[in-house]
Specification:
about 350 residues; single chain; 9 helices; alpha+beta; 6-stranded mixed beta sheet
């Protein structure tokens, strides 16, 4: 890839900028020059390695449950009055790491109510956090004392308390995190959807697409990393923004890298992490929130299906495209496979996870 450097501003800052461009070009190719790392360290620039070089952290990842390279299945509710059926298909990506997507697709009877529980958790820097979410998030939501009287409040409380536990146990669960999109169907009549990050849900209503969850980042709190912007580098991969700011109390300069996808409305750290919202990510939590966006949809005859998917799908496909592709496919498993197959055909390299829920 051709190296394009910004206009020199002179002195040591110019050297830092040139080294940063060399660094990110090397990083795209999966390598980091030792001389570049040494150069930055010699300049007394202090940075957090796994914020910038996630591929250097392999040896520090905690051992967690293995996720299969592909997974598929289907099911349906037991209710004869308000039928709900689903199909899911997950495909391991080609990003050079093990599968980090996890899902939930099951039905439970709780206090005489039939619940459909569906979720996709898209991990980064390891699979420990999404694995934990798969096993615990819905239990935490249903365990909230006000779930039946105020589902929205219960969902938000459970997201926050779950994130708090993950952060308090980062030594065991590792430095990574996860996005999430969850859907709860109550008695086939009410749909509650929530998300943080870029995994999202799209509804088909009267044959038209309707995005249920939002992936625009929340406003960042405080000055934080926005004290000074020193460099940007635009490439076909996206926009790289480098921040230099001083911690005056200890007179240390901090170097931080953000990556903005050009084909997405989601700001990301290192091309993996939605900047404003995610579970986990201990080192970045000052700039992240675990507050979900929530949406309630009463289910009637106009509601046909819901698509839940990770960004491995949404990077290469729009909401309307996805709905148009599967709205005529009655088998939800066939619909989920159709979407993941198309994402692969469009050269998506990330893990791809999709759940299609059909009503009626």
């Amino acid at each position: 890839m051709e190296k394009r450097y910004p206009v020199a501003t002179g002195g040591i800052l110019n050297k830092i900028k040139n080294a940063a461009c060399d660094l990110i070009i090397s990083g795209i190719n999966g390598e980091v020059s030792h001389s570049i790392q040494s150069f930055l360290l010699d300049l007394n620039i202090f940075f957090f390695p796994y914020e910038i070089f996630p591929f250097m952290m392999e040896s520090q990842k905690a051992a967690c449950l293995d996720a299969s390279s592909s997974d598929t299945g289907k099911g349906k509710s037991k209710s004869s009055n308000n039928k709900v059926s689903h199909g899911f298909h997950l495909v391991e990506g080609q990003s050079g790491h093990d599968m980090e997507d996890y899902h939930v697709a099951e039905y439970r009877t709780v206090k005489g109510h039939e619940l459909g529980l569906f979720a996709i958790f898209d991990g980064h820097l390891g699979d420990c956090v999404p694995s934990y979410l798969k096993d615990n998030l819905f239990n935490n939501i249903l365990g909230e004392p006000n779930f039946w009287s105020d589902p929205e409040k219960a969902i938000k409380n459970a997201y926050r308390s779950t994130d708090k536990f993950i952060l308090e146990n980062s030594g065991k669960l590792g430095p990574g995190g996860s996005t999430a999109v969850t859907a709860i169907v109550i008695d086939g009549k009410d749909l509650w959807v929530a998300n943080i990050g870029d995994s999202r849900a799209v509804l088909c209503e009267r044959g038209e697409s309707n995005q249920l969850t939002w992936t625009m980042n929340h406003a960042q709190k405080g000055g934080g990393l926005r004290n000074r912007v020193d460099l940007y580098y635009s490439s076909r991969f996206g926009l790289f923004v480098f921040y230099l700011h001083n911690i005056f109390a200890v007179n240390v300069w901090v170097f931080t890298l953000l990556f903005f996808h050009l084909d997405s409305d989601v700001p990301r750290v290192n091309g993996q992490l939605a900047v404003a919202r995610a579970f986990g990510d201990q080192s970045l939590k000052a700039h992240l929130s675990s507050e979900p966006d929530t949406r309630h949809v009463p289910i009637d005859s106009t509601i046909e299906l819901v698509i839940l998917a990770s960004d491995g799908l949404w990077k290469v496909m729009g909401n309307h495209e996805a709905v148009e592709m599967v709205k005529s496919i009655k088998d939800p498993l066939a619909a989920a496979k159709r979407l993941t197959t198309e994402a692969l055909a469009r050269k998506s390299k990330d893990d791809i996870s999709c759940i299609v829920i059909r009503f009626g």
